[in-house]
């Protein structure tokens, strides 16, 4: 289920397993923090992890949300520097921790692993560049509407996999701004909020007038 190892044979996977240590974390625990020593690759077996950074002023920016099969901490394998991100669990999570130095030896032996890692890093770089462009060219209401439409299922229901605080951070705005705009959308009859993580799109046409 881990894309970077999916092309390996059983015996090759067993080589990776020998340098892997399983760890479990409760919801809200930090797996690592900016400044921690790197040299490890973390692969998510079960659960969700939020990757974020703090600005000099202490404002959190959510970089991405990762789930089963995805990995983090990979930059420390290629650059000798401490971690630059924070990794926090959003729910009870199981992680496979792989020794970086030993993994680099296996990557030299099986280059397909290195190519898979580079492929994933290229996808992440592309997403980051698009996000930067998106935040600079779209106003707050447009960002919220397009995010809701993107996350909605066929019935127009949005079930958030993160808190509204984290969603707001990822969209480059404060939680207060997001809450105020969602309340306005609801007052206009465009959406209906149910609890903290469910949003029903009632009038898609009305929402799209803001784009």
UniProtKB/TrEMBL annotation:
Q: Transcription regulation among the record's keywords?
A: yes
> What protein does this entry describe?
CRP/FNR family transcriptional regulator, anaerobic regulatory protein
Report the GO molecular function annotations: DNA binding; DNA-binding transcription factor activity
Cellular component terms, GO, for this chain's entry?
cytosol
Give the matching Pfam families.
cNMP_binding, HTH_Crp_2
Domain spans labelled Cyclic nucleotide-binding: 4-124
The record lists the lineage as:
Bacteria, Bacillati, Bacillota, Tissierellia, Tissierellales
InterPro entries hit by this protein = cNMP-bd_dom, cNMP-bd_dom_sf, Env_Response_Regulators, HTH_CRP, RmlC-like_jellyroll, WH-like_DNA-bd_sf, WH_DNA-bd_sf
What keywords does the record list, in alphabetical order?
A: DNA-binding, Transcription, Transcription regulation
């Amino acid at each position: 289920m881990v894309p970077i190892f999916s092309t390996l044979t059983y015996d090759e996977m067993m080589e990776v397993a020998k340098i892997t240590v399983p760890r479990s974390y409760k919801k809200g625990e930090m797996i690592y923090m900016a400044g921690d020593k790197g040299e490890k690759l973390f692969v998510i077996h079960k659960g969700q992890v939020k990757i974020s950074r703090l600005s000099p002023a202490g404002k959190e920016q959510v970089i991405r949300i990762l789930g089963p099969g995805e990995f983090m901490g990979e930059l420390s394998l290629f650059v000798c520097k401490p971690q630059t991100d924070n990794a926090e669990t959003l729910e009870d999570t199981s992680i496979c921790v792989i020794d970086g130095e030993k993994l680099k030896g296996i990557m030299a032996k099986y280059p397909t692993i290195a190519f898979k890692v580079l492929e994933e890093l290229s996808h992440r770089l592309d997403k980051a560049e698009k996000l930067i462009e998106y935040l600079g060219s779209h106003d707050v209401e447009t960002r919220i509407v397009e995010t809701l439409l993107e996350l909605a299922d066929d019935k127009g229901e949005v079930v958030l996999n993160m808190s509204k605080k984290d969603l707001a951070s990822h969209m480059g705005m404060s939680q207060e701004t997001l809450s105020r705009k969602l309340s306005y959308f609801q007052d206009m009859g465009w959406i209906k909020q149910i609890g903290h993580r469910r949003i029903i799109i009632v009038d898609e046409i009305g929402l799209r007038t803001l784009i």
